[in-house]
Fold this protein.
Amino acid sequence: MKILHVIPAVAPRYGGPSSSIVSMCRALAAHGVEPTLVATDADGTGRLDVPLDEPTTWQGVNARFFARQFSEAFKYSRPLAAWLDRNVRDFSVVHVHGVLSHASLAAARAATKHDVPYIIRPLGTLDPWSLAQKSGRKRLLMRTGVTRLLRHASAIHYTSAEEQRSVERTLGLARGVVIPLGVDAAALAGEQLTDAARAPHRYVLALSRLHPVKNLEALVEAFADVHAGAAGWTLTIAGSGDDEYAATLREAVERRHVGDRVMLAGWVDGTAKQHLVGRASVFALPSFHENFGVSLVEAMAAGVPALVSRDVHLAEDINAAGAGWIVSPDRVAIAAGLREAMTDSDERAKKGQAASRLAARFAWPIVAGSLKALYERLTPRGSSEVEDETLGAGVSRA
């Protein structure tokens, strides 16, 4: 079964979607699916160093890249659209990752024209909070193609039940399917430190794309409010992204005089990332909106308890499993959660163990099996569309 995955861009700067699609394709290949990844060469103001319009690989996945011709936000690529129109019939299903981009619209149009079923994964962009940002541009896109793209999809792939409820409540969509993202086997199989073993260097870790939606400035302010009562603790913020937002974080650190307790580590990957995650005492994600959170699940897989805002869509699962602290996304609430997390070692240990058990439900082999089952249902031997449901053994609520 040949499945085409279309995403606007895969450069690391674009965060979780760029990394998770590679892991998804690898896991699908292990299940006998033949995935091909199509994207533009966008990398912020630069370009990925990849061959254009010819078969290649990206981190071990069969891929094909096309030039982003203009617009960092929309990532327009006429060559990508032309290739899709010529070749989409060679695939059983098209899995479209993203909504408000030229690649997404072009993939849906080509699939519709050639009668190939397609799935939309919104990547959180249809959540009411996200739609309210730069709303004029988004309303225009919704009117000029996105609404039709969504209503004609054979399925809409959500990564959490809360994302599905939120989007369907707002836009009145149907044919929703909930299949979470996964965690690599290495993260699940890695050695887990006890809470006591983390004691020599206690730190709260926030690892994400640097963007206002992550609400990291409130985390800095909250940590500055409570750090005096937790001797030896530091805060590490790792990730890259919006340069202006990164400057805002640096200004907050300087203004609160916590430069010796708060580190902005920049982009980390590979073994450095594993080391940083595995030795954290608490993982913080106070986002205004988060439809999944790959780094969050990776941290829980390492036995790190989570402190998340109630607007993180996995918050309900974390609360039910007893795997962390759930707070409102404001400075006072975050500070209260940090104070409890940083001063109660017994709770950290208990919640860390629960976090590890919860993360095991998101193993990529389980997730890939659910995706493959969805693809099979959409091929000619199955049905042309699906009813709303949740798929994936092992990902039910605790």
Summary: Residues 185-361 form a domain with the Rossmann fold fold (CATH 3.40.50.2000). The longest strand covers residues 34-40. Confidence is low (pLDDT under 50) at residues 392-398.
